[in-house]
Design goal:
- Belongs to the membrane-bound acyltransferase family. HHAT subfamily.
- It is found in: Endoplasmic reticulum membrane.
- The chain is mostly helical.
- Helices cover 61% and strands 2% of the residues.
- It has a two-stranded antiparallel ribbon.
- A hairpin with a 4-residue loop joins strand 1 and strand 2.
- The C terminus is likely disordered.
Length: 499
């Protein structure tokens, strides 16, 4: 990809202005709909009292967000703060045994919140997959792992395992299934890594230290066993330059994001409005576009904040967790459409890259994508919506490869071909507006990627030319021919945009 030639600044400014003006204009429509229909009967269940002094109600349709940052905020902060303090003390007194101390604190916290029957259930999953990993057969580890995962995703096993829950507090069901699901994925990672260890086996204690690390236990992200094992047992606990500053900055950014979302929920009821089908039928195209875009951005912010808070704690423990998801506005290919990079890394390492190889063969890619999204559907919980989502993502990945193969043939390899068929109800005004805004956004994304590429691989600084040797008598120099210059490679017009 050509990244050296930048777009003209005025062109970037035009794209930026169009993108932000479209976002503000669509947001104004959503604000108007929220304000006019605040007392609508369909809103009563999910739009509750908020800022009394401003006369604004709040959208509380997302249970997970309310649980994290309102209802059980103090409980979660208490558990994570206790882990940070306990981990710091252990790192100072016995750094070589810190992984065992992390495990001990995690098991105590899980036992105190969920009870001994839940801990016993998690241990049974660990024992099962550890025993099967000793056979060192990958397919058997997959069968056992996915069977265990199905017991918490498919009826009647869900109801059966629900009997292991003791207590009635509201957060318990989320903790129960979250802890079970992520534990099974971690145990599968351990089993598959143990299959690759030909000469010996990892100990059962290593599995327990890996699975009962509290920050990752209930809500993820999933960190593959090989990375966790290497990092948590590293004797080097020195910080990189400005590492603590970066950790603090990320924590402050997460706090600011939480405040901004809280403010927006008092003005934009983006989660409640889509549940009112009658109201949706009367909304304008701009209001619908604003709702769709804002819901996608909110899903990204929620994942980024929830994983970001956990990642901040794990970075204090000298771990390098999976990065937060990429902003939805920066996505334009199916290969990057994921919110949980931990699960994405897990699937790529053990399924997608393992079956797809270098992803050049059409049939291997088809097998890899079908397998990957089949597992993803099981992880998310089999239902009609998940199957539709998986199908279109699987088709999108393969369609991108088919197009790349097709246009790599002549004469398409040496020319730019753009073909669009627009068969949408709002054609031409709404359709062309959305396409133009999308185009502007993509241009800004490409410019950002160009700058990041230049930072990662800057142009080499040419060495200074050697000084001519001193001469006693200066004499005029006569050139007998033209000065030869090194040829400069020129890019073909439009090549960068085609790529």
């Amino acid at each position: 990809m050509g990244v050296k030639a930048a777009l003209p600044k005025y062109e970037l400014y035009i794209y930026m202005a169009v993108l932000y003006m479209a976002m503000i204009w669509a947001g104004s429509w959503v604000l108007e709909v929220s304000s006019v229909n605040v007392n609508r009967k369909a809103f009563k269940a999910t739009v509750k009292s908020g800022w009394h002094y401003f006369g604004r109600k709040m959208d509380i349709a997302d249970f997970e967000w309310v649980m994290w940052f309102s209802t059980f905020r103090n409980h979660i902060l208490f558990a994570l703060s206790g882990h940070v303090i306990f981990a710091k003390i252990c790192s100072m007194l016995a750094p070589q045994h810190r992984s065992i101390m992390y495990m001990a604190y995690g098991m105590m916290a899980i036992f105190s919140s969920m009870g001994w029957t839940y801990v016993a259930l998690i241990l049974s999953h660990c024992i099962l997959l550890y025993s099967i990993s000793l056979v060192k057969l990958r397919w058997l580890c997959f069968v056992a792992g996915f069977t265990s995962l199905a017991t918490i995703k498919v009826e009647p096993f869900i109801s059966w395992q629900g009997g292991f829950m003791k207590g009635t507090f509201e957060l318990q069901q989320v903790l129960f299934y979250g802890g079970c699901g992520f534990s099974i994925m971690r145990c599968m990672s351990f089993a598959l890594e143990n299959c690759e260890k030909k000469e010996s086996n990892y100990s059962f204690l290593e599995l327990l230290k890996y699975n009962f690390y509290l920050p990752f236990f209930y809500f993820g992200p999933v960190m593959t066993f090989d990375k966790f094992h290497t990092q948590v047992n590293s004797p080097d606990l020195t910080r990189k330059e400005r590492e603590m500053w970066n950790i603090t900055t990320q924590a402050v950014l997460h706090l600011v994001a939480i405040i901004i979302v809280d403010v927006l929920f008092h003005f934009l009821y983006i989660l409640t409005i889509p549940n009112d089908i009658k109201l949706l039928k009367h909304l304008s195209d701009w209001a619908l576009a604003g709702l769709a875009y804002s819901n996608l951005v909110y899903d990204w912010i929620k994942a980024a904040v929830m994983f970001g808070v956990i990642n901040t704690v794990s970075r204090l423990d000298h771990l390098d967790p999976p990065k937060p998801p990429k902003c939805i506005t920066l996505l334009y290919v199916f290969a990057e459409t994921h919110f949980d990079r931990g699960i994405n890394d897990w699937l790529c390492k053990y399924v997608y890259d393992y079956l797809g190889g270098n992803h050049d063969n059409i049939w291997n890619e088809l097998l890899a994508t079908v397998s990957t999204f089949g597992i993803t559907a099981l992880w998310l919980g089999p239902c009609e919506v998940v199957f539709i989502w998986s199908f279109f993502n699987c088709f999108g990945l393969n369609f991108e490869l088919w197009l790349a193969k097709f246009f790599s043939l002549e004469p398409f390899a040496s020319m730019e071909l753009v073909a669009r068929r627009l068969l949408i109800k709002g054609f031409p005004v709404s359709t062309l507006s959305v396409l133009f805004v999308t185009y502007c956004g993509v241009q800004l994304i490409k410019e950002r990627e160009r700058r990041l590429a230049l930072l990662a691989d800057p142009d080499p600084i040419p060495a200074p030319a050697p000084a001519p040797p001193p001469t006693a008598v200066s004499a005029p120099v006569t050139h007998t021919g033209p000065t030869l210059k090194e040829p400069v490679a020129m890019e073909e017009p439009g090549k960068e945009k085609a790529e």
